[in-house]
Amino acid sequence: MRKPSCDIKLDKNIKNKGVWSKQEDQKLIDYINKHGEVCWSTLPQAAGLLRCGKSCRLRWMNYLRPDLKRGNFGEDEEDLIVKLHALLGNRWSLIAGRLPGRTDNEVKNFWNSHIRKKLIRKGIDPNNHSVNHKIPPLQNQIMSNSLKYFGLKDISKNQTTKTHVDNDDKVSNATSDKDESYALLDLNLELSL
DNA sequence: AAGTAATGCAACCGCCGAATG
DNA sequence: ACATTCGGCGGTTGCATTACT
């Protein structure tokens, strides 16, 4: 058993947990402005922070980075997230990569708190975006090509994911070889992204 | 005004793959 | 070849805020 790379419970140097204070934010910002995004595991000590490197990285990536957009998602962004999710599933970092100034955490939260409910209200299954139509061969081919563009396997052919449905309100992307393929309605993604 | 439920979001947890010794 | 470390990711939790009764 290898020990966790960052174990808050075991590391005696890590005293702070939970919400970051303004002072901690400032220390992190100052350090990164001065030294850049260097080794996260040694950063906390070097910057005088009582946090683990992982926590520092998360704080910087999701909140402090100067190029972050913040604020509400626009309709165009929402639309793009839905389309990308139909194509990529819960690969939030890939989806966020197509949305300048947005983080994977932000996209994931937005999906779980807004988009999922919206799709359910419209009678669309947010997990597979299906409205009970089979994917026509041409559309299937487009999907397959799109996945190749992102450097991904075509999961519709043989994927068995680890998440599953506990109840109808839980996130799931359960698919298996036995599952049928469903249509991705309105998936007019530009393949030249 | 007080209590409770629902919601949104920041942060944590645990796992994985790549890099390194 | 193997063990270890690290960065990164997705899932989940917990808390603050808001809405409702």
Could you characterize what this model shows?
With 193 residues, this protein is mostly helical. It has 2 domains: 43 residues, Arc Repressor Mutant, subunit A (Orthogonal Bundle), CATH 1.10.10; 121 residues, Homeodomain-like (Arc Repressor Mutant, subunit A, Orthogonal Bundle), CATH 1.10.10. 45% of the residues lie in helices and 0% in strands. The termini are far apart. The chain binds a DNA duplex (21 and 21 nucleotides) through helix 3 and helix 6.
Secondary structure: elements and pairs:
Elements: H1 22-35, H2 43-47, H3 53-64, H4 75-88, H5 92-97, H6 104-121, H7 137-149, H8 155-158
This protein binds a DNA duplex (21 and 21 nucleotides) through helix 3 and helix 6.
List keywords for this structure.
DNA-binding; single chain; mainly alpha; 193 residues; Arc Repressor Mutant, subunit A; 2 domains; 8 helices
In short:
The protein has 193 residues and is mostly helical. It is 45% helix and 0% strand.
Helix content: 40-55%
Shape descriptor = elongated
Q: Counting H and I runs of at least 4 residues, what is the number of helices?
A: 8
What is the radius of gyration? 20 Å
Largest sheet: none
Structural class: mainly alpha
The helix/strand order is HHHHHHHH
The name of the CATH topology of the largest domain is: Arc Repressor Mutant, subunit A
- What's the CATH superfamily of the largest domain, by name? Homeodomain-like
Q: Which segments are poorly predicted (pLDDT under 50) over 5 or more consecutive residues?
A: 1-5, 153-193
CATH C-level name of the largest domain:
Mainly Alpha
Overall domain count: 2
First-residue to last-residue Cα separation = 42 Å
The portion of residues forming beta strands comes to under 5%
Q: Mean of residue pLDDT?
A: 71
The total strand number stands at 0
CATH architecture of the largest domain: Orthogonal Bundle
